[in-house]
Write a sequence for this structure.
């Protein structure tokens, strides 16, 4: 990396990654159905994640301080369970800007992590969002079809989500770490892990 790139601000966010099996399942769904739903951008297999907090453009020299704060959060946090929910969309019903998969936060572990992380980042000058936290996994962006998008007609992203969002056979996994991502626009995959933070109580 040259000197100019080292000094350029990094576009950072904090997130929870998905397990390999779930990424593979979503990739298989995309390969089977992408041609039916003309979104401009589909998420790369390695880029599936659940955002905890978006930090925006940050000077590279601030990364160690951010990482130290996040390491402290992780050291006092317990692993928690998440489940894979039903599909949804943000934006106009017929032409959504984001097509996503829901997240089931069984015991509010993700919500608590988001509160702890945003609280820690607030001490470094990163303001908390005023909007309600709505965790999700982005599948695709910017619908561009000639026919209106119909969420109800979308095949289940996973077989387990076909019956009920609270079904016992729901895809679930244990979260025992979170990561600091840097964004590289126009690259595939687009997100680079700068550091991982494993929960000490795992």
């Amino acid at each position: 990396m040259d000197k100019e790139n080292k000094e350029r601000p990094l576009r950072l966010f904090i997130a929870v990654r998905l397990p390999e099996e779930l990424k593979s399942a979503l990739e298989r769904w995309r390969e089977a159905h992408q041609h039916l739903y003309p979104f401009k951008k589909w998420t790369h297999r390695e880029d599936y994640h659940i955002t905890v907090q978006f930090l925006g453009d940050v000077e590279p020299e601030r990364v160690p301080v951010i990482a130290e704060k996040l390491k402290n959060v992780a050291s006092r946090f317990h692993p928690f369970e998440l489940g894979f929910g039903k599909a949804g969309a943000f934006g106009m019903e017929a032409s959504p800007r984001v097509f996503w998969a829901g997240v089931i936060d069984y015991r509010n572990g993700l919500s608590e992590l988001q509160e702890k992380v945003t609280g820690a980042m607030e001490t470094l000058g990163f303001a908390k969002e005023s909007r309600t936290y709505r965790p999700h996994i982005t599948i695709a962006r910017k619908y561009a079809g000639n026919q209106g998008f119909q969420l109800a007609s979308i095949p289940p992203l996973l077989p387990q989500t076909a019956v009920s969002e609270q079904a016992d056979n729901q895809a679930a996994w244990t979260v025992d770490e979170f990561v600091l991502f840097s964004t590289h626009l126009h690259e595939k995959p687009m997100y680079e892990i700068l550091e991982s933070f494993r929960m000490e109580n795992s």
Summary: The domain at 3-198 is CATH 3.90.1140.10 (Cyclic Phosphodiesterase; Chain: A,). The helical segments are 3-7, 20-33, 63-75, 109-122.
